[in-house]
Design goal:
Largest sheet: 3 strands, parallel
Strand order of the largest sheet: 1-2-3
Number of helices: 3
Number of strands: 3
Helix content: 25-40%
Length: 82
Amino acid sequence: ILKAYNGRSAIQTIHDQLPDLILLDIMMPDIDGLTVCKTLSRDPETRDIPVIMVTAKSGQKDLEAGLEAGAYDYIKKPFMVS
């Protein structure tokens, strides 16, 4: 498990050690998650890594923006795990 606390460090961390899956919030300091997702989806090295948005932004437009940015799926917070 790798952690990043802002968009810029997320991009760098992902390039340093390519993960199998990315869980990404939209609301992050520095560079937001939508921009991070777009950046990753345009890069040949990272575009095939599935990105799942996990965010409190739960509107239909937020969902559409996440998927248009290249996210594989979108999970709204809070969520329940059983």
